[in-house]
């Protein structure tokens, strides 16, 4: 039986005020109990405590307050009660950990006051379960810390503004990107660093922004030192009432790199797609992975018709083994250079090709063997024509040499004879040779010379005719 | 007559042999001349007469049947009597290359174009390269 009920029975019919105080205790939605500060024994407990802690009333009345605490908390309770014992009147409040009947440990806000029951010192305790509040508070703090960490550690500049566009806070990245310090913010307006396009009036834009219109895009940003950067600007109004967030990403370098990349790509396209050479990427088995557009004008083959096919299928059977043997060396040597070989074009004709193959399999951007091929068919044919021509000239030279030899040996034989005979006759002493005989020899030598000259002329005519 | 020198005239042209023999004799040299119609005949003569204590001056044509002048030069290269043989090439050929080829043979001391004249023969005999060999040669 409770203390209140016992008191009611002792006094007969309870007073109205007693009923009110009883109801305040018994019907209070907050768990309450009264304990003896000397023995820690729970003297009374209300229905809310029974509901919340799981013990029934009888169990409560046979417990001490120490039994509501996890073991680790007991020294703290003993200390708190010791203080209560030292005071006649005392209101105390604090947060503690309690343990329910099911073992669940809860966080509670304890508010207590000293009361006297039949002269005995007791303490009326009001317990408020703040477990959920503490958990949510912990989450809130963690969330705040997380967002603060993001705010301070993000690579983007984040500026918070008020309704007039005045900056109220900034993060570390803002210091780096815009050069502003937190102390600079007094009076700094977003228009001080955000260069709006001339056709846009800031007042209008800002008003629309405050009304929910999104303000973003690439904009020129002026740093504190006056230099300009290109920023990707994003903003959101009223992230909190009267507080607006602007996020600026410095894209100056990215844009420059993008421009360089585009220029590089244009150069690459000009070289690969529009160049005179045939550029292809093959795997280590010689299968085409990529073929440049120049394939069409050079070979009369659509690039897509080669992709996935094996390059060696197009090479002339007589040249295939030599090219294949060389290609297999690409694993040992980074670059190989082929001798001219024949490659079948889109019309079934063989073109003469030379190729420089570079192994770029390890380069993830390429991932294969880059083959740079050049059509040298015209040069080969011209070289062949030249060879034929040279052979013709060589033969002509031989014939001319033969004529020269003939001139030297055959012509000069009768000529020298003539000269010698004339010399002999001029001396007036023929050395025993009859003059008629000498003259006859002169005549026959002249005839011989005439015959030889005719043959030379005839041979020269033949050489000329052959050349024509 | 000089027993220490024999001149071999080697040419397939009989008229040219007659003319050169005549001009040589008119140049004042007094020595025996031997007429050969090709390189083989000259080689046979030298093989046969190699024991003679004499120097052989060969006036050698190039283009001849049976054995031409080049073949003759090649054939005597290993002959034991080679040191006793001096050769003057006498050819109708005018090419410098022929001349250079001829002088590649150590025994070739001169290269003359046909026809030889009396003056040419005198220059050959009186040249420095032959002086020691013709000490006993009597020039008219």
UniProtKB/TrEMBL annotation, chain A:
Top-level taxon: Bacteria
Molecular function GO terms recorded: phosphorelay sensor kinase activity
SUPFAM superfamilies: Homodimeric domain of signal transducing histidine kinase, PYP-like sensor domain (PAS domain)
PROSITE patterns for the chain: PAS
InterPro entries from the UniProt entry: HisK_dim/P_sf, PAS, PAS-like_dom_sf, PAS_fold, PAS_fold_3, Sensor_kinase/Photoreceptor
Record field: transmembrane: none
SMART domains documented for this protein: PAS (SM00091)
First-level EC class: transferase
A family per Pfam: PAS_3
Gene3D superfamilies xref list: 1.10.287.130, PAS domain
Annotated keywords: Kinase, Phosphoprotein, Transferase
Any single biological process term in GO: regulation of DNA-templated transcription
Catalytic activity: ATP + protein L-histidine = ADP + protein N-phospho-L-histidine
EC number from the UniProt entry: 2.7.13.3
Span of domain PAS: 17-71, 143-199, 264-334
CDD domains, per the entry: PAS
Alphabetical list of NCBIfam families matching this protein: sensory_box
Name this protein carries in UniProt: histidine kinase
Protein species of origin: Dyadobacter soli
TrEMBL record, chain B:
GO biological process: phosphorelay signal transduction system
InterPro entries for this protein: CheY-like_superfamily, Sig_transdc_resp-reg_receiver, TCS_response_regulator
UniProt keywords, alphabetically: Phosphoprotein
Modified residues (4-aspartylphosphate): 61
Protein name stated in the entry: Response regulator receiver domain-containing protein
Domain Response regulatory: 6-129
Keyword Phosphoprotein: yes
Native source organism of the sequence: Dyadobacter soli
Alphabetical list of SUPFAM superfamilies matching this protein: CheY-like
Pfam families: Response_reg
């Amino acid at each position: 039986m409770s203390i209140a009920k016992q008191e009611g029975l002792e006094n007969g019919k309870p007073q109205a005020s007693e009923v009110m105080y009883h109801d305040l205790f018994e019907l209070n939605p907050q768990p309450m109990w009264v304990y003896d500060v000397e023995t820690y024994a729970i003297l009374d407990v209300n229905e809310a405590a029974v509901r919340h802690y799981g013990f029934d009333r009888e169990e409560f009345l046979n417990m001490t307050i120490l039994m509501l605490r996890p073991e680790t908390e007991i020294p703290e309770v003993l200390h708190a009660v010791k203080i209560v014992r030292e005071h006649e009147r005392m209101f105390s409040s604090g947060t503690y950990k309690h343990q329910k009947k099911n073992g669940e440990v809860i966080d509670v806000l304890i508010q207590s006051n000293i009361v006297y029951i039949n002269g005995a010192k007791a303490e009326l305790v009001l317990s408020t379960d703040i477990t959920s509040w503490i958990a949510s508070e912990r989450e809130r703090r963690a969330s705040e810390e997380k967002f603060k960490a993001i705010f301070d550690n993000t690579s983007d500049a984040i500026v918070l503004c008020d309704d007039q566009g005045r900056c109220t806070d900034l993060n570390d990245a803002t210091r780096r990107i815009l050069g502003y310090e937190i102390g600079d913010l007094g009076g700094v307006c977003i228009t001080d660093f955000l260069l709006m396009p001339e056709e846009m009036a800031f007042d209008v834009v800002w008003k629309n922004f405050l009304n929910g219109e999104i303000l973003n895009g690439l904009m020129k940003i002026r740093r504190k030192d006056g230099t300009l950067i290109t920023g990707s600007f994003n903003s959101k109004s009223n992230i909190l009432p009267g507080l607006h967030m602007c996020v600026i990403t410095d894209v100056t370098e990215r844009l420059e790199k993008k421009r360089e990349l585009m220029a590089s790509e244009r150069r690459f396209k000009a070289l690969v797609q529009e160049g005179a050479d045939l550029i292809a990427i093959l795997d280590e088995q010689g299968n085409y992975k990529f073929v440049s557009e120049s394939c069409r004008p050079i070979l009369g083959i659509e690039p897509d018709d080669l992709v996935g096919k094996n390059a060696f299928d197009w090479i002339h059977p007589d040249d295939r083994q030599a090219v294949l043997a060389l290609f297999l060396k690409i694993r040992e040597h980074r670059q190989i250079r082929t001798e001219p070989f024949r490659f079948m074009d889109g019309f079934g004709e063989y073109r003469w090709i030379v190729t420089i193959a570079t192994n770029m399999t390890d380069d993830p951007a390429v991932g294969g063997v880059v083959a740079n091929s050049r059509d040298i068919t015209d040069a080969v044919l011209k070289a062949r024509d030249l060879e034929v021509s040279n052979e013709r000239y060589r033969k002509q030279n031989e014939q001319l040499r033969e004529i020269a030899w003939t001139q030297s040996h055959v012509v000069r034989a009768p000529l020298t004879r003539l000269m010698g005979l004339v010399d002999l006759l001029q001396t007036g002493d023929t050395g025993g040779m009859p003059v008629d005989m000498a003259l006859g020899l002169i005549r026959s030598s002249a005839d011989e010379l005439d015959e030889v000259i005719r043959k030379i002329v005839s041979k020269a005519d033949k050489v000329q005719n052959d050349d024509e | 007559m000089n027993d220490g020198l024999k001149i071999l005239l080697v040419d397939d042209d009989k008229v040219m042999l007659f003319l050169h023999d005549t001009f040589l004799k008119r140049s004042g040299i007094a020595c025996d001349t031997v007429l050969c119609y090709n390189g083989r005949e000259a080689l046979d003569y030298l093989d046969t007469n190699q024991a003679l204590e004499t120097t052989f001056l060969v006036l050698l044509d190039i283009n001849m049947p049976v054995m031409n002048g080049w073949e003759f030069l090649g054939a005597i290269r290993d002959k034991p009597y080679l040191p006793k043989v001096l050769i003057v090439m006498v050819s109708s050929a005018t090419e410098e290359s022929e001349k250079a080829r001829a002088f590649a043979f150590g025994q070739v001391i001169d290269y003359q174009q046909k026809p030889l004249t009396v003056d040419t023969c005198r220059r050959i005999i009186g040249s420095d390269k032959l002086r020691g060999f013709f000490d006993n040669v009597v020039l008219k």
